[in-house]
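Training component of the fellowship. As part of building independent skills, the fellow (R.M.) carried out the full modelling exercise for a liganded target. The chosen ligand was glycine. The inputs are recorded below so that the supervisory panel can assess the work.
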Amino acid sequence: MNVLVIGNGGREHAVVQALRKSPKVEKIYAMKGNAGIGELAELVDVDYCNPTVVADWLDAHKDVGYTVVTPDDPLALGVVDELEARGHRAFGPNKRAAIIEASKAFSKELMKKYGIPTAKYETFSDYETAKAYVETCEIPVVLKADGLALGKGVLICKTREEAQDGLKEMMLDKKFGSAGNKVVVEEFLEGPEVSCLAFTDGKTIKPMISSCDHKRAFDNDEGLNTGGMGTFSPAPFYGEKTAKEVLEKIMKPTVYAMNQENRTFKGVLYFGLMKTKDGMKVIEYNSRFGDPETQVILPMLKTDLMEIFEAVTDERLDQVDVEWHDGACVCVVVASGGYPEAYAKGKEMTIGALDEDIVLCHAGTAMKDGKLVTSGGRVIGVCAKGETIEQARQKAYANVEKISFEGMYYRKDIGIKYRDVERE
Ligand code: AMP
Ligand code: GLY
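Fellow's submitted model of the complex:
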């Protein structure tokens, strides 16, 4: 079967590499892809956030039998709805279900209504009311812009002044655009964080292996929030006991809740969780594979990814054994100097001879006049497997050194976090 993959990041390169291993998959097309994806797929330069444009392209390419939609924007804009309406098979939630990520106010209400553990919160659409609340609420406090804001619409405020300034930035100055029309003000939780992704067809939910992201730009979680500077898998504090708690108290109730709300979710549900002293709590939901979580998860997947995708579409996920390799995987993201703020593009890159089992996930790369150049803030992810996180970590860093371009930077501490947290 020929498959179209929508997106152009490291996550999509990881998906394309996993699909390439499937005997079911013949040709792969990618909208818009990048230089790494271009080695495995035919790149298509089409505006994938426009549902009509994507569906028109598929109508004109009858050889494509399946489309995988991974980024949040096309999902929230209803690309899957349009494809299905025109008879195309696609992986990813429809617009009604993708709201679980697209609106934090929606997801908080859902959790409250169905008793899914999360931080206490209030939602405001009026600035003066929010301001009055923040004058007396407990500090630290967390402010969240309601809509999609590239993972940057969250402010952890350690003082009341910071909270008041943040509120003004979101609601009056519109720092995150219309995403800040509504703001969720929530209780500050403490504990190690873990990303737990799961495949679901709306009836069955099958968790993937756990992973930990590093959202801040610099070592020791300093600097600005980014899309993610590296990941490792599995989380050492996420053992069988916690996984069972999450499956029973969070994952299954979420699938149930979405069905009850007439918003059946089919695709990948991403649970951003915190292990607090009162148990596991949901920090956020995403309606898709995480980036860069996917880069450490899919290399560990034993089962054919295409088989899982089709089982989700056909609502027979209960019949598929989703199996994983033992061991660990670490991904170090190499970024352009300045990211997540202004950064240079078009810098020529060189990649030396890497160890054989390294998986490179290209993000912001392109080919220009036959040369590999940078084209984004997060440029490339270097992923290594090992028996332990420490082994994988050392291998990843030994290979990061073989990549070079002007202004490159990366965190030196991916995989170190949570070493001291009690293992399970
Ligand atoms: P989000 O975009 O919702 O994942 O939030 C970004 C980051 O902010 C999370 O990964 C957490 O580190 C942090 N965060 C979000 N909500 C809370 C909370 N209620 N308490 C503490 N930290 C939080
Ligand atoms: N790594 C966080 C995300 O994909 O939202």
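The panel noted the following from the submitted structure. The chain has a mean pLDDT of 96. Residues 2-95 form a domain with the Rossmann fold fold (CATH 3.40.50.20).
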